[in-house]
């Protein structure tokens, strides 16, 4: 699996901006859990959405599921943000071309 170390300086700048734009916020996740946890608000934000729907229908398992989720939010947040980083790197490497090498700048002339 390719990672940020496989990128050129310019690609790294683009990747960091895109990752920052796409990543989920811990503050937002916790606020959604605090105010809408019983309805699965944090699950709609962090995924999977089908679990959010189940939480909405069951009112967060009558509150138990929402309470248990408090222990799993940090792990889910890390997983979602890591997936975002991997997707961004994959997208950038795919744009390089079929051989996976960085494009070579042609001399001006």
In terms of topology, how is this protein built?
Blueprint: H1 9-22, H2 26-36, H3 41-46, H4 49-62, H5 64-96
Helix pairs in contact: 1-5, 2-5, 4-5
Helix content: over 70%
**Uncertain segments:** none
SSE pattern, N- to C-terminal: HHHHH
The coarse silhouette is: elongated
Q: What's the end-to-end separation, in Å?
A: 38 Å
Total domain count: 1
Tell me the number of helical segments per DSSP (H or I, 4 or more residues long): 5
Task: Assign the structural class, choosing from mainly alpha, mainly beta, alpha/beta, alpha+beta, or little secondary structure.
Answer: mainly alpha
Give the beta-strand count. Answer: 0
What is the average of the pLDDT values?
Answer: 88
Q: What does this entry look like structurally?
A:
The chain is mainly alpha-helical. It has one domain (10-95). It is 72% helix and 0% strand. The protein has five helices and no strands. The protein has helices at 9-22, 26-36, 41-46, 49-62, 64-96. The radius of gyration is 19 Å and the shape is elongated. The two termini are 38 Å apart. The mean pLDDT is 88.
Can you describe this structure in just a few lines?
It comes from Thermaerobacter subterraneus DSM 13965. This protein has 109 residues and is mostly helical. The chain contains five helices and no strands.
What are the main properties of this structure?
0% strand, 5 helices, single chain, TM2D1-3-like, 109 residues, mainly alpha, transmembrane
